[in-house]
Design goal:
The protein has a six-stranded mixed sheet with strand order 4-3-2-5-6-7, sandwiched between helices. The protein is built from five helices and nine strands; from the N terminus they run H-E-H-E-H-E-E-E-H-E-E-E-E-H. It has a single domain, classed as Rossmann fold, CATH 3.40.50.2020. The model has no long low-confidence stretch (mean pLDDT 93). The protein is α/β, with parallel strands linked by helices and 181 residues long. Helix 2 packs across helix 3. The radius of gyration is 16 Å and the shape is globular. It binds 1-O-pyrophosphono-5-O-phosphono-alpha-D-ribofuranose.
């Protein structure tokens, strides 16, 4: 833990604040999807911890599935053109799908995935994201459930990484610029 803490500038969202907000989102989603047995789709890898906590906080029956994607292009800014590395296990026609993301930045990734999933005739597709950076948006996209709107900081922890590190932090932290610049 000592090494992990070295690159962190400050805590942006504490473990307690995350737990409280996840519980609130779960209550709202449980009410909205009552009797619908929704399918929660996690986009790997960043969403895995949020999905695990959200799923356990839901009071309704639901299923989970996973997609793994890889962005084309060079690196830090997503173009939204993605290659599906792992597709959903099951057909989603007629299902109420809730995409679970750790963060919406430009919005390109989730816009592409939603477009792709909508071709499969689901009953509905909605988005639940823990974090959103509205100032970075390149496509018009409003998530149905948003945990926190945040400024344009380099955030890590609770599933979010820098070079695959920091995902296991129990809070959302801001990385020191000297780590990534
Ligand atoms: C992150 C995040 C979203 C995407 C958001 O994934 O999980 O999928 O970027 O960015 P956008 O709104 O600009 O498209 P990342 O590519 O970092 O992969 P990871 O989830 O495996 O860490």
């Amino acid at each position: 833990m000592k090494t992990l803490l070295q690159g962190i500038d400050r805590v942006l969202i504490s473990q307690e604040a995350l737990q409280t907000r996840v519980a609130e989102l779960a209550e709202q989603i449980s009410a909205d999807y009552k009797g619908l047995n929704p399918l929660l789709v996690c986009v790997l890898k960043g969403g895995y911890i949020f999905l695990a906590d959200l799923s356990r906080a839901l009071s309704i029956n639901h299923a989970v599935d996973f997609m793994a994607i890889s962005s084309y292009g060079n690196g830090s800014v997503s173009s939204g053109v993605v290659r599906i590395l792992k597709d959903l296990d099951r057909d989603i026609s007629g299902r109420n799908v809730l995409l679970v993301e750790d963060i919406i930045d430009t919005g390109n990734t989730i816009a592409y995935i939603m477009e792709n999933l909508r071709t499969r005739q689901p009953a509905s597709v909605r988005v639940c994201t823990l974090l959103s950076k509205p100032s970075r948006r390149e496509v018009f996209l409003q998530a149905d459930y948003v945990g926190f709107e945040i400024p344009n900081d380099f955030v890590i922890g609770y599933g979010l990484d820098y070079a695959e590190a920091y995902r296991n932090l129990p809070y959302i932290g801001v990385l020191k610029p000297e780590v990534y610049s």
